[in-house]
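Please check this chain.
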Amino acid sequence: MTDQEAITNIINDMATLKNGQLQGGTHMTDSCIFIRPTGNPLSKKAWQAMMDSPDVSITHSSLVAINKIEVSGEMAYACYTTHGKFSYKGTINDDIAVLTGVFRKIDGIWKLIHGQRSSGRKPSDPLPQF
């Protein structure tokens, strides 16, 4: 499997809801930082706590497109678009978001070291063009 294929598999896994949960945490380093649309950073531990919180209820998550993957040695970045349906503190969201991930190959395994999510747009709005 090529590095690009490995990262594609990770993105697919992170974007797909499994047993009512997102699997992002399994692909993050312990020092990973994830920037929310508000600009607030979350550590891996804080991200997992948010996902496990009763304030968050995810009913759908899927990959819409991988917009770009660039691999350079042991580092890579990717830009991808997802569709998510969830509620946060009772506010229902049905949106398309663009995410950016920075990956590092550690002991032969690609891990997310930094992630950032855009604000969502309505699924009926035009998709972002890359």
User: Anything to note?
Assistant: Residues 3-117 form a domain with the Nuclear Transport Factor 2; Chain: A, fold (CATH 3.10.450.50). The CA atoms of residues 34 and 42 lie 5 Å apart. The longest strand covers residues 56-72.
